[in-house]
Automatic annotation (TrEMBL):
Main location: nucleus
BP-aspect Gene Ontology terms: cell division; double-strand break repair via homologous recombination; protein sumoylation; protein ubiquitination
Nucleus among keywords: yes
Protein name per Swiss-Prot or TrEMBL: E3 SUMO-protein ligase NSE2
InterPro entries: Nse2(Mms21), Ubox_domain, Znf_MIZ, Znf_RING/FYVE/PHD
Molecular function terms, GO-annotated: SUMO ligase activity; ubiquitin-protein transferase activity; zinc ion binding
Top-rank taxon, per record: Eukaryota
Length: 154
């Protein structure tokens, strides 16, 4: 199992429990079994998921949701706060608040451990200080966003 993977409550036969929920789930989910670690077989048919996305489209998407999605780039994966001094990892391309990532790297290295990228799903397992560069473009975008957000109507 992947070191960052987590487990969910499974019944001993590795069948997902649907008690009380089965009536609201599509029939393709009933009796679904989890694949073994590393399996490339999807748990759900991808063509069904793709069809759902195509049918739903983007009509009726809430404008606030779109804005929220664009703002997630401003949030540090370590502090979960809006970044003020973003730095970019040259290796994996993820961005963090400078003070938070520096403290994390120093803390890990003091204990003779490697600092892994804190972005969920990232496989970069050895962040070094030399991998970090100031992300001026993102800093300016955050500042611009904040000016617009806090601008008072005239």
């Amino acid at each position: 199992m992947h070191p960052r993977a987590c487990t969910v409550g499974l019944i001993p036969d590795r069948t997902l429990e649907t008690t009380g929920l089965h009536s609201s789930l599509p029939s393709s989910l009933s009796g679904m079994k989890l694949g073994q670690g590393g399996s490339s077989t999807p748990l759900l048919p991808l063509d069904g998921l793709q069809a759902d996305r195509e049918v739903e489209g983007t009509e009726g998407v809430d404008e606030d949701m779109i804005v929220t999605q664009s703002q997630t780039n401003f949030i540090c994966p370590i502090t979960q706060l809006e970044m003020k001094k973003p730095v970019k990892n040259k290796v994996c391309g993820h961005t963090y608040e400078e003070e938070a990532i520096v403290r994390m790297i120093e803390s890990k290295h003091k204990r003779k451990k490697k600092a892994c990228c804190p972005k969920i799903g990232c496989s970069h397992t050895d962040i070094r200080m030399s991998d970090l560069i100031q992300d001026e473009a993102l800093r300016r975008a955050i500042e611009s966003h904040n000016k617009k957000k806090y601008r008072q109507p005239e």
